[in-house]
Amino acid sequence: MCYEHKGSRAPATSKKGGTQSRQGCFFGILQHVTKGKASFLNEWEIVVNVLKKFEKVEPSTISAAAHFQQNFGLNNLDTCELVMAFQEKFSIKSPDSEANKIDSCAVAIDYIIKNGKPS
């Protein structure tokens, strides 16, 4: 379930067809994590650093709501390489069926929080 964060500087999320944007999901993750799980900010900082090192990603486009193909212009192979970099950085071994679902920053951070630890 996604929660909309009410006091952030980020623009409000829009609801389309009963679903919230990825940014809304991101803030739901943030609320979940800050209630006792591993440090979200640490994981997010590592994710941002991995993204900044990826040649095809313009650092100014990195945001919690960013989609790898739509916002960064990555193709399927680029996305696969990026996901592999996350898997290596967070010591995650996941089947291809799970890795193929990681297509945005929000989904990546959610998956990392649930399955990984920084190496």
Automatic annotation (TrEMBL):
Its main location: mitochondrion. Residues 41-116 form the Carrier domain. GO terms for molecular function: acyl binding; acyl carrier activity. Signal peptide: none annotated. InterPro entries: ACP, ACP-like_sf, PP-bd_ACP. Keywords: Electron transport, Fatty acid biosynthesis, Fatty acid metabolism, Lipid biosynthesis, Lipid metabolism, Mitochondrion, Phosphopantetheine, Phosphoprotein, Transit peptide, Transport. Residues 1-21 are annotated as: Disordered. The keyword rRNA processing does not apply. SUPFAM superfamilies: ACP-like. It is found in: Mitochondrion. GO terms for cellular component: mitochondrion. The keyword Ligase does not apply. Belongs to the acyl carrier protein (ACP) family. This is Carrier domain-containing protein.
